[in-house]
Write a structure and sequence with these properties.
alpha/beta, binds oxa(dethia)-CoA, five-stranded mixed sheet
């Protein structure tokens, strides 16, 4: 059976590391509060570098092409997950493709917030299984901090910037085995950036009210993140008849260490099986899973044949879980 396998992976974090101590100079908070409530110690933010989400994915896409030896003209499709596109249009995928000299491929964005990477992989899987495309770039581009209000202590410590890219190709041995991907718009106003789209244009009044910034009902989102991610994990495990012995690594969206722990406990997995980098990356939305995977791969943790359980949750609400086998992946 043909599956979609990740055959190349890379990530990029901007150079500036914003620490909890520096955030404590902007709002009433402390390193202790942020660390114990979220697990985050620092995050990378775009400063003194070209702005825009595309800028974070471009180095990762170029690196993946170089490491895999795939030429830009061989790429048939580029799907970009982003919560903060460079522009409403054109798509950030087109900007990234242009910078990487990828011409004539099908290029488009997916706006599924923090579940974006799983949405993209699911689409890549469909293209590959149907035989429509064989060389697909899936990337995540998140300059989230451009809309973080550094006067709002309930959100400003959470988010960071980052980008990642994967080459996805057909494989008979490795790749996505099971995917359960969902959305329910009933919670759409609990994690939202109100202003900037067609519903609320950025008038002076809207901007004065701070409607361009990320708004989150933290407690509500937290509870739903735990419920929906653990449900999706159960769905995947039931469909595959999986036990903990069938899982080498658990890697979830990095939003809060307490949420990651809740999913880990739900699977009964020990800490050693969990890939977690939230302490120095924070929440980079759709980029968080591929950045964490790439860091783990660079540390030599991911080996050919390893079986991974991924889970994510984000604005929408969107959520999902995926079970995949790690193969020959150039890093
Ligand atoms: O990526 C998409 C999905 N996103 C998530 O999954 C994030 C989900 N939510 C969370 O991670 C957590 O809800 C937060 C980290 C955002 C907040 O943690 P919490 O334990 O739920 O705290 P809370 O919102 O219940 O706030 C408790 C108290 C409040 O004070 P009062 O009202 O009890 O006096 C807050 O004002 O902590 C206060 N607080 C802070 N204090 C110091 C909130 N943020 C801070 C802060 N520093 N940075």
């Amino acid at each position: 059976m043909i599956k979609a396998a990740i055959t190349g992976l890379s990530h990029y974090l901007p150079k500036y590391e914003l620490t909890n101590d520096e955030i404590a100079t902007m709002v009433e908070t402390s390193d202790e509060w942020i660390t114990t409530r979220t697990g985050i110690k620092s995050r990378h933010v775009l400063r003194d570098e070209p702005m825009g989400s595309s800028q974070l994915a471009i180095p990762a896409v170029k690196d993946v092409l170089e490491k895999t030896g795939v030429k830009p003209e061989e790429v048939e499709c580029l799907i970009c997950a982003t919560s903060n596109p460079d522009y409403t249009y054109p798509s950030t995928a087109c900007i990234i493709a242009d910078a990487c000299d990828i011409r004539n491929a099908m290029c488009y964005d997916i706006l599924s917030a923090c579940t974006g990477f799983l949405y993209c992989l699911q689409q890549a899987q469909a293209f590959i299984k149907s035989g429509i495309y064989k060389k697909i770039i899936v990337c995540s581009a998140e300059n989230l901090t451009s809309f973080v209000n550094y006067q709002d202590r309930t959100t400003c410590a959470l988010f960071g910037d980052g980008g990642a890219a994967a080459l996805v190709e057909p494989s008979e041995e490795y790749g996505v085995e099971i995917a359960k991907i969902h959305a329910d718009g009933a919670g759409h106003d609990r994690l939202i950036r109100y202003c900037g789209g067609s519903r609320c244009i950025p008038t002076h009044e809207a901007v004065d009210e701070g409607k361009q910034y990320i708004f989150q009902d933290g407690k509500y989102v937290f509870k739903n993140a735990v419920t929906f991610m653990t449900n999706a994990v159960s769905e995947v495990m039931e469909e595959g008849n999986l036990t903990l012995n069938d899982i080498d690594w658990v890697c979830t969206h990095q939003a809060n260490k307490r949420i990651i722990d809740a999913v880990r406990e739900h699977c009964g997995a020990p800490e050693e099986k969990v890939i977690c980098n939230i302490d120095h990356v924070g929440n980079t939305s759709s980029a968080s899973i591929p950045i964490a995977l790439h860091e783990a791969a660079l540390k030599g943790q991911l080996k050919k044949g390893d079986r991974l359980l991924l889970a994510a949750f984000g604005s929408g609400f969107t959520w999902g879980a995926m079970y995949l086998t790690w193969g020959d992946c150039k890093i």
